[in-house]
Amino acid sequence: MRLEAQIKRLSHKALFLLLPFVLASCAGKDPLPPKEIPYFTPVTFDSLPGWLRDNHLEALEPFRRSCLKILRRPPAQFFGKEHFGSLKVWQEACLKLNPEKFQAPQYARQFFERNFQPFLVQKENSLTSVGLFTGYFEPEIRGALRQNGEFQTPIYMPPYDLKEKKERYFSRREIDRGAIKNIAKTIAWVADPIDAFFLHIQGSGRIRLPNKRILRVRYAGHNRHPYTAIGKFLIKRGLLARENVSMQSIRAWLARDLVRAQEVMQLNARYVFFRAMRGDGPVGAQGVVLTPGRSLAVDPRFIAYGVPIWLDTRDPLVEDRPLRRLLIAQDTGGAIKGIVRGDIFFGHGRIASKQAGYMNRRGQYYVL
User: Fold this and answer.
1) Measuring CA to CA, how many Å separate 60 from each of 57, 94, 102, 175?
2) Paired strand residues for 364
3) Under 8 Å CB-to-CB from 344, ≥6 apart: which residues?
4) I want to staple 273 with a disulfide (CB 3.0 to 4.6 A). Which of 76, 158, 169, 290 is the partner?
């Protein structure tokens, strides 16, 4: 948010170098893990690459959805992380939204310019602003409500004893071998175990039943094992070339040998549980419906949910084409770790699947 009063007393750089340490001393503990501290450098909107060419209106509705969550919280609290200030200030900005003007030319851009200050996000220890940006989507897979014929892979709800066990729960290998079949309800049975595996990675999806009805499922927890990217394993073993790795190439490799594919998928011990959902979706970690191309998954240790973010990276399908747009931090994921790290939600369908599968670009972002 705007910090004109502080700017007059102290330079921006000094302010944001000191802020994490000042707040840590006030709270009696370091608010962020050691050696993982974000550094914020103030910039102007005019200096944001491509700012004037974006359709800011597309980001206004997802920001309004985040505001509905923000306005329900106690104003005396910090907004996610201490360095983003108090909830009260953010709530004041949310209350300035005028839905009657949402279709007016330039309203969205003017709203963000008048109420926010952009900051380049960097890693404090290295002062690098470059990080990795990937993509995800809402897959649609074939399934049935009962186990029969080709539908043999279960989509589980959280097991009854998951909350009771504080340590790591059964691994993917153990669950695949039936460890929880008597203590977890099954939402549906799907035809392709590879589809089920990628549903776990995406965190939500659509199951198309034999009667053509769509059953939507969303993330409801996991087995507390670390996430392992099987793409790295395939590269290390020389089974895929680094420059050719994408969701599509990994799927193609797995499909060639289902027995070996199961062994490789089980290297990712993390197993995700789901629940059926009604209404619009999918829903992100902030508890709001995600917007294709405008919702970003972030590491919540460093970026608060609801923060507008200006992204500067490259298009997933055309490398020399910039991808510069305003997104809202509304989700997270098991592989989204780090200060400069993001995962773009692309929606559902064939195009979204392709965009998400090939999105693996370096870039930088600015928080507003």
Assistant:
1) 5, 11, 8, 42
2) 312
3) 133, 134, 135, 136, 293, 295, 296, 297, 311, 327, 356, 359
4) 158
Q: Which of 266, 151, 268, 277 is nearest to 204 (CA)?
A: 277
Largest CA distance in the chain: 71
Total residues belonging to the chain: 368
Angstrom CA distances, 104 to 107, 111, 178, 291, stand at: 6, 11, 56, 20
Asked if residue 187 lies in contact with residue 275, where contact means CB atoms within 8 angstroms, the answer is yes
d(CA 58, CA 38): 28
Question: Taking a C-beta distance cutoff of 8 angstroms, is the pair 62, 328 a contact?
Answer: yes
pTM equals: 0.78
Alpha helices of the chain — where are they, by DSSP H? 4-9, 12-27, 57-70, 87-95, 107-115, 172-176, 193-202, 230-236, 247-256, 258-265, 350-358
